[in-house]
Specification:
about 60% helix, mainly alpha, elongated, 7 helices
Length: about 140
């Protein structure tokens, strides 16, 4: 069987040798998705605290996250810094969002979490803090806040 396959391969090469082919550039054929970054905020929660937390989550996604400071020189913000930026001076709304965020954190990680900044600074990556801001937005929406 191997001999027959070898003969067929040689016959194929002989029969197609006259066909002119150009080398294919794989970059023209194989393409991956274009990284466009996070999209626009599709839908805001109808309640003010939930909408604020959702905007803060989006800001952390698009503007980056930092720890050990409210914001850094590149514009990255911590969880509370993103809430403060999106509250736009409304300290009551900011306090309500921070309270709901701390409650969401304590529901997941227990009562040993002292504050939102200490929780933020305890993480090396943004994955968990961003997830908690998103969950807090859902909690605020469920409560109608």
């Amino acid at each position: 069987m191997t001999v027959r396959l070898d003969q067929a391969a040689v016959a194929y090469e002989v029969n197609t040798a006259h066909l002119g082919t150009e080398p294919v550039n794989l970059a023209d054929i194989i393409t991956g998705p274009v990284d466009t970054g996070p999209g626009p905020l599709p839908y805001l929660y109808p309640t003010p605290v939930a909408a604020l937390l959702q905007r803060a989550h989006h800001r952390l996604l698009t503007g980056d996250w930092c720890r050990n400071a409210m914001s850094d020189e590149d514009g990255a913000r911590c969880m509370l810094g993103a809430i403060r930026a999106e509250a736009r001076g409304d300290r009551g709304l900011e306090a309500s969002a921070a309270t709901i965020l701390l409650e969401a954190i304590r529901r997941r990680f227990g009562d040993n979490v002292d504050s939102v900044p200490s929780f933020n600074d305890a993480h090396a990556t943004s994955r968990t803090p961003l997830r908690m801001v998103d969950q807090a937005a859902g909690l605020a929406d469920a409560r109608g806040l």
